[in-house]
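User: Could you write out the 3D structure of this protein bound to DP6? I've included everything you need below.
Assistant: Certainly. Input first, then the structure.
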Amino acid sequence: MHMEFQPITAIAHPNIAFIKYWGNKDDVLRIPLNSSISMNLDGLSTQTTVQFDKALDDDEIFINQMPASDEASKRVTDLLDIVRGVSGMVTAAKVNSQNNFPMGSGIASSASAFAALSLAASRAAGLCLDEVALSRLARRGSGSACRSIPAGIVAWHAGTRDEDSFAEQLVPSGHWDLVDCLAVVSENHKTVGSTDGHRLASTSPLQGMRVTDSDRRYQRCRQAILNKDFELLADVIEQDSNLMHSVMSTSKPELIYWTEATLNVIHMVSRMRKIGLEAAYTIDAGPNVHVITLKETLNVVETQLANISGILHTLSAPIGGGVRLVALQAEPS
Ligand code: DP6
């Protein structure tokens, strides 16, 4: 008897990096030049359903209920091809991916999207991958996606090849009451995305120094998290973010993501810390500022940020869990 393929749904959170990934040893396998550390963002998520279907000639990919662009479809199909290769099947799949955060919110969706896709696609193909194997698979879709597989605060060991480049949990979500308060200053799409940015990193004379010193920063960040030492965390994540943006701004062509409002937030965060408030900034490949704080300080931070000119709105997220399967309600027949 012919078995139908079952639809499988998975959900994953995006993450914000404390120690950044910027530049690869191998762009195709996405083996990074340095290890990184990030926190999953609770409340924000991508939910993805995958169903292999013999009636399809090609993969059909929908993102937020719209057919995906050619570029996005190719990236998804490339990941499905890896899954098909491992499971030995040749069938095309229908993929439906839905973010619960707006596209223009300044949160990159590639991490949560490829984490959810990796779990949904591998299970839909009959594979049962462990956390390390899932993380390695997600990494092939988007480097930072490997960090959205484990729960909590997560470390991605750079490694040197496919087998040893994966993420694992550093501490579970209940370890510390950290919150990411994202100050959205622009909802425009970034001009140069991360994938192209990684390829430009080596054109900056500062990249070698950033990478050479990365293990020291990684160890300090790890210690800060294990010891719940906010002062140390603030010091190291701001330096790491500034180093990445120094590389970006000295690449050829240069990548300058900051706007006037970005700087306004940086200055406000520095003032808050001077008066003893737990607040620290970190910025990805865009102008929006992630203000890391503690649950008990969040209200004060939000109030301070609301006074800054150029902030459109804020969005806050405590430490989130890892990727997981979702049992969908059966459609009424
Ligand atoms: C600045 O993981 O988005 O957010 O592997 O090409 O998909 P690809 O890049 P991506 O790069 C993330 C860059 C960053 C820093 C970080 O998250 O570590």
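The two ends are 23 Å apart (CA to CA).
User: Perfect, thank you.
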